[in-house]
Structures are given as structure tokens and as C-alpha cells.
Amino acid sequence: MKRFMFVFALLLVVGLSSALAQSEAEVLVTATVENELILVNLDGDWGLFSPGQSYVVSASGFKEPPGPGEGAGITVDPIGFEVDGNPGSDVQVTMVLPAAFTSDDENGNLPLSNWTYGWNYDNDPSVAFSQAGNVTGSAVTLSIGGGAASGLFLGATVTIPTSAFAGGYTAQIIGSATYVQ
To answer: For residue 115, how many other CB atoms are within 10 A of its CB?
Structure first.
């Protein structure tokens, strides 16, 4: 019996020592996000307006009719966003579009309607748009060009009430962007 116990103990020690002799290793995996998605605001000035008139400002900045003292074919500052990100990616830009310009002196509003958009790979409103149309809902989907930036430009109809006060008016567009999968 002693011999049996001795052999059993020896086998147990050998078995445990071989189990302890095994090894473990870790592998570290890393990744980097290239060209994060960034929206850069493109602020603009739509010029002068007259009470009792409606104006259409296109996404490329063409204003019809011209405001007081502005010549025919006037182009005002286009507004919108530069969209920077991964070349070749599709991006959805969701916006909160204002219903009106608000008087800087709190003297009323100038209604805004019929929002339009145009976007291109050149990030230049004077270059032909890759796609243009009416903003439906509050989002526009576009693609990012090889230069890692595309431009999204906006236009709208501005209605000036006959009772509009003279002075400055401001409107704010809030945008956010996400990659489309």
C-alpha cells in the first residue's frame, strides 16, 4: 500500500508540474480612426431686403430679386457647411433649420421657407453641384470627395412683411453629421 501511495503521489506531482509548465501570452490589437468627421460653418450675409417683398436665395448664393441698391444678378454669401472626413464616405448632415430671421433688436421676424441645398466635392458654391434640390425633412446625404472635404450650401425663400422694422436680422442653422453605413 505504501508503494501504491508513493507511485500515486509521484504521478500526481509529475502531472501537476506539467500542467504548471504551460504558458500564456497576450496579443495587443490597435486601430486608428482616420480623418474624423468635422462640420465647419460657412456663415454668410444675404444682403439688403425691402418690406413687402419675397426673395429667393439659391444654394449657390444667387438672389432674386436684387435688394435695394443691389444690381441684377447679385450673388450673396452662400451659407452652409464644409464637411471634412474620410474620402469616398457617405455622410448624412442633419440640420435644425430656422423658421425665420429674428430681429437683432427684438422687433419681429422675417419668415424663411422652401429650404434648398446643393453640394459638391469642390467645396465651392460657384462650381456645379453634384446634387441639389429641396431639403426634405431636415437631412441631406452627400459624399466626401478625394480631397477629404465637400461643401453643403443652403438657400431659402425670405418673406419680408410690410411692417418689418429696419435693422439687422439673424438666423442660426445647427448641423450635425454622421457617416452613413
So the answer is: 19
CB 77 within 8 A of CB 41: no
Q: Given a cut of 90, is residue 5 above it in pLDDT?
A: no
pLDDT at 18: 56
DSSP per-residue string spanning 141-155: EEE--TTSEEEEEEE
Pick 10 or 93 by higher pLDDT.
93
Grid cell digits, residue 145: 470627395
Distance between CA atoms of 81 and 117, rounded to whole angstroms?
Answer: 11
Structural contact between residues 158 and 127, judged by C-beta atoms closer than 8 angstroms? no
* Dihedral sign (CA 43, 127, 155, 46): positive
pLDDT at 153 over 90: yes
d(CA 65, CA 32): 50
Which is nearest to 150 in space by CA: 107, 177, 120, 130?
Answer: 120
pLDDT at 171: 96
Strand, helix or coil for residue 80: strand
